[in-house]
Amino acid sequence: MRCPVCEKDYPQNVDFCPDCGTELKSEEKRAAKGKAPEKSTPPPGKSSKGDQQEGKECPHCGAVNPSIAQYCKDCGKNMEVTPPTCVLQLESGDTISVEKSEKWFGREDFVDHLSPDEAKFVSRNKHFKISREDEQFYILDEDSTNNTILDGEEIRGEGKKEIYEGDEIRLADEVPLEFRVEK
């Protein structure tokens, strides 16, 4: 298959051209209906020639893209625009960074920051998950042993919940964390 804008070849399982960001599935649908593709020019500094080597991770969705790609082949977002990250701040002032679009937290993530008496309340593998979709962050506790509390509300088994700057997370009502966004 070939991108109708920059004319680069791409695999069939790619939704967006990794070089110019054109949504490829919509182009295929237009072609199937006999409509001409919407043309645009590649971004400045991008040519339609050159080798594509794997190795550049999308900061939005984590997909691995060709090293020269400006736009992600999976989510179509500009990989040169860094999405916000977040940190969990403990009472001690220590922080734990969340640098990917999704991260599960368990006891191992806290052992360097909590006493053994506090750490025992955090589930071993998957106590809760922080995820990011575009600019919005979410927290999820599917089935921790001792619950997760978001601003006074127990959220275990309640599905993902929006989380905002300054929200308080309590693990087992014993370990307080403050959610902070870093742009």
Mean pLDDT: 82
Helix content: under 10%
Number of strands: 12
Largest beta-sheet details: 6 strands, antiparallel
The number of helical elements comes to 2
Strand arrangement across the biggest beta sheet: 4-3-12-11-8-9
Order of helices and strands: HEEEEEHEEEEEEE
Give the total of domains: 2
Gyration radius, in Å: 21 Å
Descriptors:
single chain, 183 residues, mainly beta, Tumour Suppressor Smad4, 2 domains, six-stranded antiparallel beta sheet, four-stranded antiparallel beta sheet, 2 helices, 7% helix
Notes on the protein architecture:
The protein is mostly beta strands and 183 residues long. The protein has 2 domains: 1-81, no CATH class; 85-182, Sandwich (Tumour Suppressor Smad4). The chain has helices at 24-32, 116-119, and strands at 54-57, 64-66, 85-90, 95-98, 102-105, 128-133, 136-140, 148-150, 153-154, 161-163, 168-171, 175-182. The strands form 3 sheets. The chain has a 6-stranded antiparallel sheet with strand order 4-3-12-11-8-9, with no helix packed on it. It has a 4-stranded antiparallel sheet with strand order 5-6-7-10, with no helix packed on it. A two-stranded antiparallel ribbon has the order 1-2. Strand 6 and strand 7 form a beta hairpin. The protein is elongated. Mean pLDDT is 82; it is low at 36-53.
Q: Secondary-structure map with pairings?
A:
Layout: H1 24-32, E1 54-57, E2 64-66, E3 85-90, E4 95-98, E5 102-105, H2 116-119, E6 128-133, E7 136-140, E8 148-150, E9 153-154, E10 161-163, E11 168-171, E12 175-182
Antiparallel strand pairs: 1-2, 3-4, 3-12, 5-6, 6-7, 7-10, 8-9, 8-11, 11-12
